[in-house]
Amino acid sequence: MTSRGAYTVNKMASTTPPPQRRVEKPQKKPTAEAVRGAIQLGIGYTVGNLSSKPDRDVLMQDFYMVESVFLPSEGSNMTPAHHYPDFRFKTYAPLAFRYFRELFGIKPDDYLYSICNEPLIELTNPGASSSWFYLTSDDEFIIKTVTPKEAEFLQKLLPGYYMNLNQNPRTLLPKFYGLYCVQCAGINIRLVVMNNVLPRAMKMHYKYDLKGSTYKRRASRKERTKGSPTFKDLDFQEMMSEGLFFDPETHSALMKTLQRDCRVLESFKIMDYSLLLGVHVVERGLRERGGRGDSKRQKVLYSTALESIQGDGKAAKPVPDDDTLGGIPAKHKEEKLLIFLGIIDILQSYRFIKKVEHSWKALVHDGDTISVHRPSFYADRFLKFMGGTVFKKTHPLRGSSRRKRTSLHAQRSASQELLSTPTEPQKERKTQSLASLDSPDMSCGGQPDVVPSSADLGEVCSALTLSSSCSSASRSDASSESRGERRTSSATLVLGAATPPSRDPSSAPSSDSELDVYL
């Protein structure tokens, strides 16, 4: 009976239905609007919360600190409610980036107003990466999504980046203002806030992404069909083969800044970076704007192209409203230009995968023309291309001074030919003229640099006559010979009167010799 009861219990247990397993609905991928809203809401919360913390010196552990906060859609005691899906927001090295923002004169209120006041503007990506770009409405900041490797590399780079900015805040390298991560619907979106190199308020008639390499460095057909395409190295050599010309001082400051920045990147084992170059044609821009210039209030120090290459950075003040928006003046042929530039994409280190990529491409193509290369070679090739092909120095007085030297040399050689073989009578007369100049009884009419006192000053014609003539070919008699020798002077300035005073014939030899000595 015991076995029968046990059988009954087991039978009842087998007939009980198993508990139903809870099936979770797959989370939808966040929309572009939800991502933009989460970015603005997360940055607004973290920066606002950071402002309540006291200022202190940046320590080494601050570069590796990560703060995380969960923001549900219904809100909580610490976070506001919102109409976006639930998400988690991470902030990397908040104290270090707060120091970077203070170094560039960015106030917390201005930073929040620029990013959170109005919706972000989504930009197209002309490069080969799959990054998203967002621009703030006031043109100050760009938000770019980065890969996990790039985010990790930037966090490791922060101590050296901190040291470099302390030594030289004026640089063409990217200026990083924040590193964040949005976790929403099982997706991690890492993003970095940087300075905007090309202001949207100034129309860029040409844009270039330059690396100094030639392998596949031409804009694609799809890129060329855009309203504002971004060209590459081979396109620049075809479209602006003469290069961009700067005055000597600006050219020297620009090349020194590029050299310093490239050496910094080389020390960090960074390569495959680019120079983003925007060209604004001044006259075309004035016609498009109807003669009106653009101006805005600058919020960030050292953010314009002109500021980034000039000065020592010790006493910097915000630039007042300027129609050029901080562009560097340059010329191409006869066109006046404004140049905007900056080094971008510096989060590519020469890792193992990059070494394999270079080795594989070098088997098929010339290794020196490939973009991916070791950092030292990449920096040298980059600087050589920028200094030899893109940026050139003007020589405004070179042609005129050369022409002046040539004309003076021709005049001197011509005068030397005329005066190199003096005859014996000329030598005797020159000797006599030296004695006659010292004689007290020499008349004022024989001195070429003294105006005769007997002439009426009202009737004197103040005209400088440049007379040059060659010696007469006919020397038949003595009188004609003396007249020909007297004409041998070249380029003599004579201040004459309307009615020249009469001279004593006996003083003619003295006058001849005096002209020779004066010449």
Oligomer: single chain
Shape: globular
Low-confidence stretches: 1-15, 21-25, 313-321, 354-358, 399-427, 430-519
Give me the side-by-side strand order of the main sheet. 1-2-6-7-5-4-3
What is the rounded distance between the termini? 152 Å
> Which structural class should the secondary elements be placed in?
alpha+beta
- What would CATH call the class of the largest domain? Alpha Beta
Looking at CATH, the homologous superfamily of the largest domain is 2-Layer Sandwich
Percent strand:
15-25%
Average pLDDT confidence is 74
At CATH level 3, the topology of the largest domain is Phosphatidylinositol Phosphate Kinase Iibeta, Chain: A, domain 2
Largest sheet: 7 strands, antiparallel
Number of domains: 3
Determine the number of helices (DSSP H or I, runs of at least 4 residues).
Answer: 16
DSSP E strands, number: 16
Gist?
The chain has 519 residues and is an alpha+beta fold.
Give a verbal description of the structure.
It comes from Clupea harengus (Atlantic herring). Residues 31-390 form the PIPK domain. Residues 21-31, 478-488 have a biased composition (Basic and acidic residues). The chain is of the alpha+beta class and 519 residues long. The protein folds into three domains: 29-196, Phosphatidylinositol Phosphate Kinase II Beta (2-Layer Sandwich); 201-395, Phosphatidylinositol Phosphate Kinase Iibeta, Chain: A, domain 2 (2-Layer Sandwich); 399-518, no CATH class. It is built from 16 helices and 16 strands. It has helices spanning 2-15, 32-50, 94-103, 108-116, 148-167, 221-224, 233-239, 248-267, 282-289, 305-309, 352-364, 375-390, 398-419, 424-438, 478-486, 508-518, and strands spanning 66-71, 87-92, 121-123, 133-135, 141-146, 176-184, 187-195, 206-210, 230-231, 244-246, 274-281, 328-332, 335-344, 391-393, 464-468, 490-495. Helix 2 (32-50) packs antiparallel against helix 4 and helix 8 runs antiparallel to helix 12 (375-390). The chain is globular. The protein starts with a helix and ends with a helix. The model is unreliable at 1-15, 21-25, 313-321, 354-358, 399-427 and 430-519 (pLDDT under 50).
